[in-house]
Amino acid sequence: MKPFAILRTWLTWRGKDPLTQPSACVNDTGTAKGRGVYALRDFHDGEVVEACPVVSLATPYEKLPGEIQNIVFQWVWLENSPVIQAVALGYGSLYNSDNPSNMRYEIDRPARIMRFIDVRHNYANEELTVNYSGCKGAAASDTNWWFSGKSITPIFSANNE
User: Fold this and answer.
1) Domain 6-142, CATH
2) Which of 149, 157, 153 is nearest to 130 (CA)?
3) What are phi and psi of 23, to 5 degrees?
4) pLDDT on residue 21
5) Eight-class DSSP state of 43
6) What's this model's pTM, rounded to 2 decimal places?
């Protein structure tokens, strides 16, 4: 297998505000999920938890190694052109999925970042999650298509089972 090609690396901040380290840490979830990202302080509805620079990949999704397929986000999808995937740096590609999740994400193409935004009050020591199946980064979805497409049974928090 050829190594996947990096289209561009967006390590230069193009936003208005400086990037700061999020108030979060990676820890064992104590479940089959393995690791998760946990809040080190309370976050409030609408607060940006993290803004992550991205690395975009020109290799088609199907040709990416399986480990990379599990952490990329769809970055650009234009009619009559290939889909471009991106790996979010920081904790962006480490957040576990929940449905509904306690964060949503949005893509800021001009700034070349992904923002992870709290959708309800999250308390310190609570796992921070996104919804892998959420349309355009939404916190909730009617289906779990991301997992179905990979033949994976999702593991959701006790509150969402």
Assistant:
1) 2.170.270.10
2) 157
3) -85, 70
4) 76
5) B
6) 0.80
Q: How many residues does the chain have?
A: 161
Going from the C-alpha of 98 to that of each of 21, 33, 76, 145, the distances in angstroms are: 23, 11, 24, 13
Cβ neighbors of 16 (< 8 A, separation 6 or more) are 111
The low-confidence residues of the chain, meaning pLDDT below 70, are: 1-20, 76-82, 158-161
Residue 91 CB neighbours (<10 A):
20
Nearest to 148 by CA among 132, 161, 125: 132
For residue 55, what are the β-bridge partners?
Answer: 9, 87
Residue environment code for 14-24, b if the CB has 16+ CB neighbours within 10 A, otherwise e: eeeeeeeebeb
Residue pLDDT, tens place only, 113-133: 889 999 999 999 999 999 988
Please choose, from the candidates 113, 91, 115, 104, the residue with its C-alpha nearest in 3D space to the C-alpha of residue 45: 104
